[in-house]
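Saturday, quiet lab. Running sequence design on the structure tokens for the scaffold JK sent over.
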């Protein structure tokens, strides 16, 4: 995937997926929003001007630290992901074009956007047994109905229903 090999763009896409962020939330991340000690990332002014936190996966923290050492943005910026000039955050269009090219380079024909990474994050959590209410909080959804849309994509635990029922009814 030549297209996503640019370290700043690649790290931005990785971070957006690993935290379940919207595109704008990922690009507006500032270094001060990352709390490595508490393993949290603070998302400021998300949709609806709402703030929230997201758990910071340890593997992402390690990659962000490597990224920072190798690609340290210009000291004049507060943003985590900046282009070479270091004056402003990476532009949405730049990252969208990178994602589209990377998808094409990987031979993925199915339509997908950067927002698909957010949906994938939520679906993977749901399939792993995380409650819908917790996912709602992580994604910053105001309504549980918005989060319930992921139920149509996957049926968490459906493949284990027989095993669970057998275990629950073992004493019959």
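Result came back. Writing it out in full:
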């Amino acid at each position: 995937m030549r297209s996503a090999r640019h370290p700043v763009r690649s790290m931005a896409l990785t971070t957006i997926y690993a935290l379940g962020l919207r595109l704008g939330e990922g690009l507006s991340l500032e270094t001060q929003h990352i709390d490595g000690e508490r393993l949290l990332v603070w998302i400021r002014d998300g949709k609806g001007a709402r703030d929230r936190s997201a758990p910071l996966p340890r593997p992402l923290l390690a990659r962000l630290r490597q990224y920072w050492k190798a690609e340290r943005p210009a000291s004049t910026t507060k943003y985590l992901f900046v282009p070479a000039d270091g004056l402003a955050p990476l532009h949405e269009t730049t990252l969208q074009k990178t994602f589209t090219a990377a998808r094409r380079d990987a031979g993925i024909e199915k339509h997908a956007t950067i927002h698909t990474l957010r949906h994938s994050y939520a679906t993977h959590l749901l399939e792993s047994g995380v409650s819908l209410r917790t996912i709602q909080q992580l994604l910053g959804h105001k309504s549980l109905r918005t989060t319930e849309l992921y139920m149509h994509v996957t049926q968490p635990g459906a493949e284990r229903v027989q095993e669970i029922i057998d275990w629950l009814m073992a004493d019959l």
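Notes for JK: The helical segments are 7-19, 23-27, 58-71, 92-105, 114-127, 132-139, 144-148, 161-168. The chain has eight helices and three strands. Ask whether to fix the surface positions before the next round.
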